[in-house]
Amino acid sequence: MVWVIYTLVRAPFTPNELTGDSYWYPYPFLNPNLSQNGYLSVTFYVILIAAVIGLTAAGVIWRSHRGKRPAA
Fold it and tell me: Whose CA is closest to 26, among 41, 8, 40?
């Protein structure tokens, strides 16, 4: 989340040398200029990605603990 905030603050001040734009975002879903909803869309995608990563991690942890029996 810190990286996302850093990227959103830094991007408008970083020129894109390939396209000549006055801003550079590393991923299209982080670029509020590509969506009519702007930062609302960016927020939605970031929360969605964080939720998927969190649920995947929880599933892996749950699966790794399933079936373990305490030592007798």
Answer: 8
Burial level of 23, CB count in 10 A (0-12/13-18/19+)? middle
For residue 51, give the 3-state DSSP assignment: helix
DSSP one-letter code for 67 = T
The whole-angstrom separation of Cα 19 and Cα 45 is: 24
Query: Taking the complete model, does pTM exceed 0.70, yes or no?
Result: yes
DSSP 1-31: -HHHHHHHHHGGGS--TTT--S---SSGGG-
For the stretch 23-66, pLDDT in tens is 899 999 999 999 899 999 999 999 999 999 999 999 999 999 88
